[in-house]
Specification:
The protein has about 400 residues and is α+β, with helices and mostly antiparallel strands. The chain contains twelve helices and 19 strands. It has a domain at about 5-80 and about 105-180 and about 280-350: FAD/NAD(P)-binding domain. Helix content is about 35%, strand content about 30%. The strands form three sheets. Strands 1, 2, 8, 9, 10, 11, 17 and 18 form an eight-stranded mixed sheet that branches. Strands 6-5-13-14-15-12-16-19 form an eight-stranded mixed sheet, with helices on both faces. A three-stranded antiparallel sheet has the order 3-7-4. The N and C termini lie far apart (about 45 Å).
């Protein structure tokens, strides 16, 4: 049995947890990062992962400040300069980075690659030790974390970054509020077949989302000519599509996608797909005794606008700033981030409710709203900057 002591122990070495450990190490804090399942090493020959994120420009800048972005961009990323949103084609709203003098709106990156880039930046930092083991128990009052391999860690502070089903949060007795949405989402990895390089450059630089009566449909470009499609629908429809995906011949699944998705989607081949539930969860407290919650351990948001990991990185940035000046964690971190995250969650739920019904009056109003937004001038530019986190 190994006995260890530290100032901070971060439980969960995903994107948010590793960013937290890296930030603490760069502040010369003694930190232990616990991750049971390290990310698989990168190879350029690997097919793209299903799990990816749209990193807002603010997140890219934060990762740059942490010294991780230069590692991430040596692997594979896909910047996007345009965003299109519509329900009826005549009410299409488009946002383009050059309109506000920006190089890009954000960057699509596979989650594993972001995690690997952060881990690479952390690798040689003498202030951080990494334990690859599963946590079996934690105590919010004593600060003790026990791992399955027998490692006992006593910390001044436990930072929980262990996801929506956080064991640290549960052990600390922190309650949550939330629900499962009526829809589920299917993520589909595809390879596009563009007729020429100009079409490829045009198609892979814009992400788009169409609202339909059964739920949104989204196109998320990835490196080279790969992309991810997201199809929101009823659990019954998603299960039907999963059964089609199990077939060796993907012809039926391809036909179902082609029938549902707009003409903006060109020729493509289906590579892989997986379903995931849509959950809203918010912890009633982010801080209790020696435990601090960040990322998905503190909140889960409807992925409608891809803000999940971005608000997780904002948690990390805020907490690091408070720790750096020895501030009040409850007043300056918990209250600030709870308010900001709740506002984002409520906004996403507003979009979800507004576009997930068949009411003809609401349908007319939302299309008028999208059409007006496209002509919005300074207001439109303000929305773009908000989405970029700047």
């Amino acid at each position: 049995m190994s006995q260890m002591q530290t100032q901070y122990v971060v439980v969960g070495g995903g994107m948010v947890g590793t960013a937290m450990a890296l930030g603490l190490a760069r502040l010369s804090k003694d930190v232990i990062l616990i991750e049971a399942f390290p990310a698989k090493a990168f190879s350029a020959k690997q097919q793209p992962d299903l799990r990816m994120s749209a990193l807002a420009q603010a997140s890219v800048e934060f990762l740059t400040d942490l010294g991780a972005w230069q590692h991430i961009e040596t692997m594979r990323t896909r910047p996007y300069t345009g965003l299109a949103v519509w329900e009826h084609p005549l009410a299409r709203t488009e946002f383009h980075a050059p309109d506000i003098g920006a190089e890009r709106l954000g960057v699509f990156v596979e989650n594993r690659i972001t995690q690997l880039g952060l881990a690479d930046a952390l690798a040689d930092n003498k202030h951080c030790r990494v334990v690859n083991a599963k946590v079996v128990s934690s105590d919010a009052k004593s600060g003790v974390v026990i791992c399955a391999d027998g490692t006992h860690i006593k910390a001044q502070t436990i930072i929980a970054a262990d996801g929506v089903k956080s064991g640290v949060r549960e052990a600390a007795g922190i309650k949550t509020q939330g629900w499962q949405y009526g829809q589920q989402a299917l993520g589909i990895t595809i390879q596009n077949h563009y007729p020429d390089s100009a079409s490829a450059e045009r198609g892979q630089s814009v992400t788009w989302q169409q609202f339909t009566p059964s739920g949104p449909l989204a196109f998320l470009p990835m490196h080279e000519d790969f992309a991810s499609l997201v199809w929101y629908d009823t659990p019954e429809q998603i299960n039907r599509l999963l059964k089609l995906a199990e077939q060796t011949d993907k012809t039926e699944l391809h036909a179902a996608i082609r029938k549902q998705f707009p003409n903006d989607l060109g020729e493509f081949s289906v590579l892989n797909c997986a379903a995931f539930p849509l959950t809203r969860m918010h912890a009633v407290r982010y801080v209790k005794d020696k435990v601090i919650l960040i990322g998905d351990a503190a909140h889960a948001i409807n992925p409608l606008a891809g803000q999940g990991v971005n608000i997780g990185f904002q948690d990390v940035k805020c907490l690091l700033e408070v720790i750096a000046r020895d501030g009040d964690v409850v007043a300056e971190f918990e209250k600030t981030r709870q308010r900001a995250n709740l506002q984002m969650m409520t906004t996403m739920d507003g979009f979800y409710v507004a576009f997930s019904n068949h009411n003809p009056i609401l349908k007319a109003l939302r299309n008028i709203g999208l059409f007006t937004a496209d002509k919005g001038g300074k207001l439109k530019h303000a929305v773009m900057k908000k989405a970029m986190g700047i």
